[in-house]
Design a protein that fits this description.
This protein has 157 residues and is mostly helical. It has a single domain (13-156), classed as Up-down Bundle (Four Helix Bundle (Hemerythrin (Met), subunit A)), CATH 1.20.120.550. 69% of the residues lie in helices and 0% in strands. Helix 1 (13-43) packs antiparallel against helix 2 (71-99) and helix 2 (71-99) runs parallel beside helix 4 (131-156). The longest helix is centred in the N-terminal third of the chain and has 31 residues, at 13-43. The radius of gyration is 20 Å and the shape is elongated. The mean pLDDT is 95.
Length: 157
């Protein structure tokens, strides 16, 4: 494909889509632990390390059970772990996609498809939807990364 722009320029619509989607996913990845902290502080439970249950300015009245798992907190932790399994691969595959200069529509479908299915997966996990719903959404965003990486590999061979 002939281009009149630099690949790593916001004049390149593929790079622009990557910059937007990667920024959104990086924020998602970095903000999810803050949700976990907020939940721990709200219920004063779900702490993990023994020193977390000691008296401190943030824990002025320690109580038994603060180190026991708390489903409200653990759900947020599981969402974060799932993000950690999915988003880094997207960031790498998406950047490599930019470098092989794919058709704009293909790139937009793959990049934005990942973001949309991750957002829906987050909502499904947060609202305790059936595993089937979460698994379907995870499968779609995983396939987006697999297709992206496969396309890059095919272009590089």
């Amino acid at each position: 494909m002939s281009t009149d722009y630099l690949l790593l320029s916001l004049d390149n619509p593929v790079f622009q889509a990557y910059v937007l989607t990667a920024s959104i996913m990086t924020l998602k990845l970095m903000l999810q632990p803050w949700m976990t902290v907020q939940r721990m502080m709200k219920v004063r439970a779900g702490y993990r390390s023994p020193e977390d249950a000691k008296r401190s300015p943030l824990n002025p009245e320690p109580r038994p059970g603060q180190l026991e798992p708390n489903e409200y907190v653990e759900r947020s932790r599981r969402i974060n772990l799932n993000d950690l399994e999915s988003i880094p691969g997207f960031l790498v595959a998406g950047f490599l996609l930019v470098l092989v200069d794919p058709p704009v529509l293909l790139a937009q479908v793959l990049l934005w498809g990942f973001v949309v299915t991750r957002a829906l997966h987050f909502i499904a996990y947060l609202t305790a939807q059936l595993h089937d719903v979460r698994a379907t959404l995870w499968t779609l965003n995983s396939l987006s990364v697999i297709v992206t990486a496969g396309y890059v590999l095919a272009q590089a061979l």
